[in-house]
Amino acid sequence: MKVLVVDDIGYSCHYYARLVEKIGFTPMRASSGFEALEVLKTEKDIHVVLTDLMMSGMDGVDLFQQAQLVERYSDQGILPSPHFILMTDLRLEEDSQDRNQQRIKLARKLGFSKIMLKPVDYKELKQELNDLALNVIQSSTSEPALDLYSLVQKLRMSVKEIVTAGNKEAGAEFLKILQEEIDNLKKHLKIN
């Protein structure tokens, strides 16, 4: 899976591109939102954009909005817009009227896959990229598309709810059901 890293600070762009490579994916780089748009117009196999929020000229939110307008095609037809992960060193303050704080709130509303605080945690980024890679697997086959990313997110939210509630009976029942479904999937895949 290709990941486009966008940051107008050279060493940051290089650092996050190396992090993406260490995780096991192919990084590409852009030093501005404008450059990133040009890359997205020519590189059809970019599935994720990892972008900084604050950049001169075009910030990460503007880039997201402009990228939604870029028409991308393959031999199979129209390609969806890539998933976006926003990086920022700003901590969100709910009552703040600061422009950048408002941009973070807008990013949440627009549908960024994830908003990550800098310095980005390696494990968190790895988990998010691996989750997003599930969509690449399902979209590269001729079988009907499944939104595995959403399914995994729902599963994680269910587990989080059970843990937060501290309901051990519900946790044990959920685990039992999950194990049954894992066994069914193994049978389907003919795995021991």
Compact overview of the structure:
By secondary structure, the protein is α/β, with parallel strands linked by helices. 53% of the residues lie in helices and 17% in strands.
Write the layout of secondary structure elements.
Elements: E1 2-6, H1 10-23, E2 26-30, H2 33-42, E3 46-52, H3 60-67, E4 72-74, E5 77-79, E6 83-88, H4 99-110, E7 114-117, H5 122-139, H6 148-165, H7 168-189
Parallel strand pairs: 1-2, 1-3, 3-6, 6-7
Antiparallel strand pairs: 4-5
3D structure, described in words:
Its EC number is 2.7.13.3. By secondary structure, the chain is of the alpha/beta class. The protein folds into two domains: 2-145, 3-Layer(aba) Sandwich (Rossmann fold), CATH 3.40.50; 149-189, no CATH class. It has helices at residues 10-23, 33-42, 60-67, 99-110, 122-139, 148-165, 168-189, and strands at 2-6, 26-30, 46-52, 72-74, 77-79, 83-88, 114-117. β6 (83-88), α4 (99-110) and β7 (114-117) form a beta-alpha-beta unit. The longest helix has 22 residues, at 168-189. The radius of gyration is 19 Å and the shape is globular.
How are helices and strands ordered from N to C? EHEHEHEEEHEHHH
**CATH level-two architecture of the largest domain:** 3-Layer(aba) Sandwich
Q: What is the CATH class designation of the largest domain? A: Alpha Beta
The protein's oligomeric status is single chain
The largest β sheet comes out as: 5 strands, parallel
Helices, by number, come to: 7
- Tally of structural domains: 2
Distance between the termini: 28 Å
Q: What's the CATH superfamily of the largest domain, by name? A: Response regulator
EC number: 2.7.13.3
InterPro entries: Bact_response_regulator, CheY-like_superfamily, Sig_transdc_resp-reg_receiver
Pfam families: Response_reg
Domain Response regulatory: 2-133
